[in-house]
Amino acid sequence: MIRPELKQPADLERFREEARAAERRYRARILVCMTGCRSLGAVELGKALRERVAAAGLGDEVSIVDVGCHGPCSLAPVVVIEPQDFLYGGVKPDDVDEIIELTLRQGRPVDRLCQQAGDKPVTTVGEASFYRSQQRQVLANCGRVDPTRIEDAVARDAYAAAAKALTTMDPEEVIAEVRGSGLRGRGGAGFPTGVKWDLCRKAPGDVKYLICNADEGDPGAFMDRALLEGVPHQVIEGMIIAAYAIGATHGFIYVRAEYPIAVEHVSTALAQARECGLLGENILGTGFSFDIELRMGAGAFVCGEESALIASLEGHRGMPRARPPFPVQKGYLGKPTTINNVETLANVPLILARGKDAYAVIGTKGSKGTKIFALAGKVQNTGLVEVPMGASLREVVFGIGGGVPDGGEFKAAQMGGPSGGCVPAQFLDLPIDYDSVKEIGAIMGSGGLIVMDDQTCMVDIARYFLEFAQNESCGKCVPCRVGTRHMLDILRRICRGKGEERDLELLQELAEEIKMGALCGLGQTAPNPVLTTIRYFREEYESHIREGYCPAHSCAGLFDYSILDDKCTGCGACRRGCPADAIVGERRKPQRVLPDKCVYCGNCIEVCPVSAVVKVRPAGGSDE
Amino acid sequence: MTAAEKTLPANLSPALRIVEGMQPITESSIIPLLQRLQDSYGYLPRDIVLEVCERTGLPASRVFGVATFYAQFHLAPRGRHVVRCCRGTACHVRGGHAIAQSVRRELGVEEGGTTEDLRFTFETVACLGTCFLAPVIMVDDDYYGNVRPAKIGGILAMYE
Questions:
Q1: pLDDT tier for residue A603 given thresholds of 50, 70 and 90
Q2: Which residues constitute the domain of residue A109?
Q3: Does A317 contact B149 at a Cβ distance shorter than 8 Å?
Q4: pLDDT in tens, A171-230
Q5: Which residue from B26, B95, B133 is facing A39, i.e. has the nearest CB?
Q6: A584: distance to nearest CA of chain B, Å?
Q7: Closest to A377 (Cβ–Cβ): which among B29, B89, B102?
Q8: Considering the entire predicted model, what is its pTM?
Q9: Same domain, residue pair A463 and A449
Q10: Which of A74, A220, A607 lies at the smallest CB-CB distance from B89?
């Protein structure tokens, strides 16, 4: 396909009209998530849809579009059908004929593919509880456009905001607009974006760089992946505006190599933007030149930290350095450099398109706009959600997320990944914004939100995050390298039931030293998960230490498996499935677990057909 | 012809093509250069890297410093298939540990290890970013979501 070279803003408008006209030729669009849903069979589904819709003779009236994430990932593969906006989940190639007959020919929903509320099907996106309290602003086009076709993006106004900025505003005005919008960095720390741009613009020097930080390494965070996969042109447009504002002609997108689909879609989008003259020399005839280079990370979490990321781009080991000077003063190759997160940049076109005041209507006093959360863990509807700043955790976890599945009880939400903390149930109604979350010991972070229930051990979670931080510590500064190691040793000991009374005090002391002494954000925030769990779940630590008992039945050795005699049918499934020969018993008689041999793999619970295997307080392990 | 040239591995040509295609090579190119070398050879053979350093003027100490820092680079041959177990938070709270244990048992190698027949390399990764599928494993470029320990054997059997 040959794309036009856009030499002036009017060319972009014409391109947009053509793209819209091309789309209007179809009476219906089937939007198949071809990103996250690929892992559950979206590719086969897309193929079946194309073949059979064509065979049904509807190829000219119905278009099948491969799109980015729709949001409710637990329904994967997810399909949305326009114009009615029917929302189907768990769609298989076998369902295609029914979709063609009912939906495409008769305009009716296929009820069994819809979510159910009581005995009634919830047929459309607008009705689904998952979407009801969301405000999908940044994600508005995610799931609606084919990310591998610039026409789709342009039809929905992509690059209009950049054209407006480049042709009608000077860089200072762009900065003032973003500053006035109150946009804060979505990567974690929440630094005001406009202020950062201003500092970089004013820093002396002719050569400046812009970096899009897409090294999304926080376990549990996937909003940057979804944005790059689903709306790459929105991020590129944000970068064009940012580059114009700070005076950069060269930019980088530094993306994790573990995101193959994101890498693919961004490469395609960059090539198409270049082809259309939206990147390169003299963009839209404005005299402004800017291009973007895609760089893949090489597997180091610390490279999400800005000075380590710059070191990595320069071809060094990804180690942070002391600041000041800050990257806006001395960054890539010693030149002033602005580093913005993917989601931050994806917000920028919205601000320019609507104006700062309209943007700032949403949000709280200190945190404007929306925030995308990656909702996962022990929650019914996992996926990608976008809510206004100031929404409560209850709204996100229960309203949108549908609460904890399998009758579990909400215990905490982990926010901010390894740098964040666990927020307990008592703060469910707290309006979430940068400042409120910080006050209770967590951080907004990049937006990972993992729900934990009564089967999640908070000591184990603290150990888990410390292990992560310790693994990913680059080793440059002592507080992080050695300090996290010591904390981890103590936590491992507690999880094995070998903790001592003074351990909690020691952990807190070490935590304070590391926070104060570490060189970069990784080390400075590594103790947060430990501190918040001690603060809100102290009794769980004490149970491990004093009673050798893990109340969540999660830490190996600190609980036992037991088989209920009155339920066990003696089928022997658990005995045969046990990898450690820790289950004994005769056929058709109750089986028995030998705690000394048990390796705590949990297979017996998994395979028991009558739920006769339970977890209990270890015999003799308590003074009860 | 010197002794060093005689012992050069026969398959140097892909490396030379990569170097040729990346000119001019500066220190900033070290990571992309190593990424391409590894894509081509499956790992970073020591002799090849040394030869590339020789021809590009990049200090070998710098290049190996980088190669040993990042988790993605491997200095030893790898299995035909890579099994990646996610150890992200969502996977962790949904039983990811038992999945990793099951892979370990099936393959008989520890994390980071390669089976003797070079069929599988077993790795864990911080997060695959597909938390809604937790627990997740990835074999080569294929994702497997909502896996149970008992399913691991069947999944691995599909990869020869």
A1: confident
A2: 22-132
A3: no
A4: 999 999 999 999 999 987 899 999 999 999 999 999 999 999 999 888 888 999 999 999
A5: B133
A6: 20
A7: B89
A8: 0.93
A9: no
A10: A220
Confidence of residue B55 (pLDDT cuts 50, 70, 90): very high
Residues of chain B found within 8 Å of residue A225, distances taken between Cβ atoms = 129
Nearest to B126 among A217, A225, A317 (CB): A217
* pLDDT recorded at residue A297: 92
State residue B9's pLDDT score: 57
Residue with the bigger pLDDT between A623 and A452: it is A452
Separation of alpha carbons A126 and A84, rounded Å: 10
**Residue B25 touches partner A, C-beta closer than 8 Å:** no
Structural domain ending residue among the three candidates B11, B38, B69: B69
Q: Is the same domain home to B63 and B10? A: yes
| The residue to which tokens 């931050």 are assigned | A344
Chain B residues with beta carbon closer than 8 angstroms to that of A221: 127, 129
Same domain, A412 and A426: yes
Query: Is the confidence at residue A621, as pLDDT, over 80?
Result: no
Q: Is A447 on the interface with B (CB under 8 A)?
A: no
Do B65 and B94 fall into the same domain?
Answer: no
Q: How many domains does chain A have?
A: 5
pLDDT, greater one: B9 or A466? A466
**pLDDT at site A623:** 41
pLDDT given at position A266: 98
CATH code of residue B127: 3.40.30.10
Among A78, A109, A189, which residue's Cα sits nearest to residue A416?
A189
List of residues 6+ apart from B124 with CB closer than 8 A: B84, B85, B86, B87, B100, B111
What DSSP assignment string belongs to A308-341?
A: HHHHHHTTS-------SSPTTTS-GGGS-EEEEE
Rounded distance between C-alpha atoms, residue A272 and residue B31, angstroms: 25
Q: Give pLDDT, residue A271.
A: 98
Query: With contacts defined as CB-CB under 8 Å, which chain A residues touch B35?
Result: 257, 296, 298
Q: Is A265 exposed, middle or buried (0-12, 13-18, 19+ CB in 10 A)?
A: buried
- Contacting residues for A119 by C-beta, under 8 A, at least 6 apart: none
Per-window interface: A 62-81 vs B, CB < 8 A: 73-74, 76
Residue of B nearest to A414 (CA): B89
Does B22 reach chain A within 8 Å, measured CB to CB? no
Residues A9-36: what's their mean pLDDT?
Answer: 96
Residue B1: band (very low, low, confident or very high) from pLDDT cuts 50, 70, 90: very low
CA distance A86 to A124: 4
Indicate the residue of B28, B70, B88 with minimum beta-carbon distance to A300. Answer: B70
Contact A7, A15 (CB under 8 A): no
Report yes or no: A579 at the B interface, CB cutoff 8 Å.
yes
B residues 119-158 closer than 8 Å to A (CB): 125-134, 136, 141-145, 148-150
* Cross-chain Cβ contact B129/A383 below 8 Å: no
Q: How far is B73 from chain A (nearest CA, A)?
A: 7
ipTM metric = 0.86
Beta pairing, strands B120-125 & B81-86: parallel
Residue B119 sits in the same domain as residue B64? no
Asked whether the predicted pLDDT for residue B5 surpasses 60, the reply is no
Q: Tell me, what's the pLDDT at A94?
A: 97
If asked whether residues B89 and B151 sit together in one domain, one would say yes
Q: Residue A526: which CATH number?
A: 1.20.1440.230
Are B50 and B85 found together in one domain?
Answer: no
A277-294 tens-digit pLDDT: 999 999 999 999 999 999
A389 has a pLDDT exceeding 90: yes
Q: Which residue of B has its CA nearest to A422?
A: B89
In this predicted structure, the answer to whether residue A1 has a pLDDT above a threshold of 90 is no
| B8 within a domain of the structure (yes/no) | yes
Cis peptide before A325 (omega within 30 of 0): yes
Buried-state track A172-202, b at ≥16 Cβ within 10 A, e below 16: eebbbbbbbbbbbbbbbbbebbbebbbbbbe
Instruction: Give the nearest chain A residue to B98 (CA atoms).
Output: A601
Round to whole Å and give the CA distance between A181 and A165: 15
In a domain, residue A330? The reply is yes
Q: Residue A424 pLDDT > 70, yes or no?
A: yes
